[in-house]
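Forwarding these from the shared drive since the link keeps breaking.
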Amino acid sequence: MGVATHGDAPGRRGTYRGDVEPRSLVRRAGLVAVAALAAAALAACTPLVSPRPTVLPTRGATSVPSPTPTPTASGQVLPTPSPSATDSRDCGGAPVTVSDTAGATVLTGDCPTVTIAGAGIEVDLTAARAGTVAINGDRNRVEAASVAALTIGGQSNEADVATLGAITINGDRNQVDASGAAGAVTVSGNDNRVTAASLGAVSDAGSRNTVATR
């Protein structure tokens, strides 16, 4: 009796391959499905990061301080103007104090007392009825049609007045010019100059002062 070998039994060999290959394909498909599910789960757990917007500062944006009001002796408030601004106000029969810096002020109406306490101010009183004008600051300029009395306690001030009453100068390097008549002159400072069409009594207790008529 002969013994059959694997080569002699092709039917059995074919049946073995058919059993193994389908199982391998099924196993590979299962691994692929598991990997896909894991990738999907990982993607669902990862937060989305949105890009941050870049904010640039606004150019040319500057704040402008508002003017600081200046109270007068009677409670009247004169705003402090900028160097290029002109403040115009009616005194209304009340004392007025001007304490700006490098500004221009025009006063009109009845001004019984005007006190200038700032520096580098131009005060126009040509349309006002001025009583007593006191200049206590430095480098101020006053122009008026008529002043009953002028007192200067600061330095390097100028006053141009058409007609002027009594003049008292306690500071230095001030100049007073009256195109018309002026009253009595009292000087105790130095290097001051007073000129007028006519002068009253003169008292000079300072040094290097000039008090003269035209």
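-- next protein --
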Amino acid sequence: MPGRRDGWRGREWEICLKIKNPPKSPLVRGTLTTYDDILLSWVIINCKVFDLSAMSLQEEIDKTRREIKTDSYSMSIGELISLYEEGDLEINQNSLAFKWSNQRKSAFIESILMGIPISAILVNQRHDGIWEVIDGLQRLSAIYEFLGILKIENSHQYESFTMLQDTIYLPSLNGKKWNDENDPENSLTPTQRLLIKRAKIAVNIILADNEKMIYELFRRLNSS
């Protein structure tokens, strides 16, 4: 039956299917013309229901939750580095316009070395299996940039971050690089690099077909 069927609740729709000749009450006659409209009005009048074409809040919640599936992993920074280098994890270039200052990025690297837990990141898994970062852009880009692997379009617009600045709890980090063969004195040691690569980050994965919903979620989490 055309028109309002998709919005009707199951029980009321079952009632409607059993009705072949709904009565035309004075409230209906002369105002509604299609059989579908008459049927809807009969159910409203006789079953004491409200507008069946409109979903309640709970129905809206249930419908939206059915459209989104989630998964989660605990991954090392080393694994996330590999995913990015292999092209299996992508960072939206437009989001880098709001990136952290080098001082804040240095403080973040300091936190990793100190063993402070890193907040979870959120990614959207596309149909081709690629992960697009929705939340956690600044954290991951700070790591990738410090390692010298961050892919930045129009890189001349950004201040490079390959050397740590003075930090509060580990002041000796000032001037340190990830791994400069020409300047080993000012590079992190292999042990220190492993501390960073083995640090864990929780990855929450969204699997959703609604691209508009994913875009809106990205916009909310990354607006200035």
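Confidence is low (pLDDT under 50) at residues 1-14, 16-33, 48-52. The longest strand covers residues 68-76.

- D.
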